[in-house]
Every structure is written in C-alpha cells, then in structure tokens.
Amino acid sequence: MRLIGMLDSPYVRRTAIALRLLDIPFEHDPLSVFRTFDQFSRINPVVKAPTLVCDDGTVLMDSGLIIDYAQTLAGRSLWPTELAPRTRALRVAGLALAACEKAVQIVYELNVRPADKVHAPWLDRVERQMRAAFDALDAEIARHPLVADEPGLTQAGLDAAIAWRFMQIKRETPIADAACPALAAFSARAEALPAFAQTPPDENANVSTPGYKAP
Fold first, then answer.
1. Of 49, 96, 99, 194, which is least packed with CB atoms within 10 Å of its CB?
2. Which residues, in sequence order, are bridge partners of residue 60?
3. 4-20 pLDDT, tens per residue?
4. Comparing C-alpha atoms, which of 92, 88, 100, 106 is closest to residue 50?
5. For residues 102 and 177, what is the distance between their CA atoms, to the nearest angstrom?
6. How much is the pTM?
C-alpha cells in the first residue's frame, strides 16, 4: 500500500497518522502536486493529494474516504461509537477541517495567484472564517477535553492537532497559543505521540507566504 503526497498537506498527514494509529503498514511516496505534477499524474491523473494505492492496485483519493477504507480494513474505527461522544467528535472534526480548508485557501491565494491578482477582501473573509473555526475549536476542547494518547485518540483529536500545526508552520505570523490555549496545549501533547512524531510535516518543503501578516 502506498500513500502519495507531501506531509506538509494537512490532508495527507491526517491520513498517514490515521494509518499508523490503525496499525496499517504503508509506504509513503512524498510527491508534490506542484513540483512533481507529471510523476504524480502517472499514478493518479487527477493529481489529488492524498492518493492511496491499495494492495490490489486500486487508486483511492480524498483523505476522508481513504481513512474510511483504512478503518474497514483494520476492523475498527477512530470514531466514538456512542451517539453523544460521536456527535461531539463530529463537531470537533468539522471545525478542524474547516480551519484546514481556510488555511489552505490562504496559502494558495498567496502562492499560486499572481501578487497583483490577490483580492484583499476575499483574503480577509477567509481569514475571518479560519479564525472563527479555530476559536470555536478551542472552545469545544476547553468544554470537552480530548484524550491525547494513542489508544484513546479519536479522528477528531487527530484532526484538531493537525489543523493547529498546519497553521503554525504555514503562516508568517501564526495565531498565538494564548489565543487558543486549550487547542494549542492539546496539539502540543498530540504532536509528542509516536504516530505524530514519526509523521512530521515536511517543513523544508513548505511554500512560504512572504508579505502576508494576519490582520
């Protein structure tokens, strides 16, 4: 089984860590959707990261769908089974993925679009959405603390930690830990776990965002 994509993508990294937590062996092929587009396209013409090449050669894409496949393969889930904990987990994961989505939009806006075409009102709007997601995520974790050990870590906890770390390494001026203390503390504990430490974001491959500072 091969996981294709760079670990500086929160979607690739959430998939890789989920595979580790589920004890599913895989090879990681760190292809970039930018620098190695042609090579990536020979594996998956859609060039979407993450891509998973299954043992039987089937090519899957989209982190959520790959993780669903992995849970079926492992015969266990990273989601709580009871309704109330599962509902809270879905709320946390939704906020974390929304924060990731907005953070990725900011990175793409500043690094793919020509500088003279960047639309400041749009950037400000996305920034507000991202901050709202992180604020709500912090409030949820403060209200219902997440388990930060590998046996008890849920997909929601994984996603929350991933989202915070991605923001930290991609922004010229990261949101301060003091602004989201519960989230920042949880993320730090999660990042110390073996599944996270063995799957570090490839910071050397990051695309910088020069000139962008959050309002």
1. 194
2. 52
3. 999 999 999 999 999 99
4. 100
5. 19
6. 0.90
